[in-house]
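[Automated response] Your request has been received and processed.

Submitted sequence:
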Amino acid sequence: MRICCGQNPSPLSIYPNPADDAITVRGMEPGTVYHVVDILGQVVRTLLPDTPELKFSLMDLPPGVYTLVSPQHRTQFIRR
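Generated structure:
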């Protein structure tokens, strides 16, 4: 008996990284909730994309290291 799985999610691509004012994320799963988490583990933004590619502003975030988190992904980016 084999119990499986689903497909491996495609990797997220975040650019530019590091970024000054905005980033573009490719490879997102529409309808999936993504959280931007700071170095202290605090959720600083929640995203719900309706397309596989999303561009969003970082102007309200202080410089630092952030992680974009979903049930299938965990990818870091830097805000300069």
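Summary generated for your ticket: DSSP finds no helices and seven strands in the chain. Residues 14-79 form a domain with the Immunoglobulin-like fold (CATH 2.60.40).
If you did not submit this request, please reply to this message.
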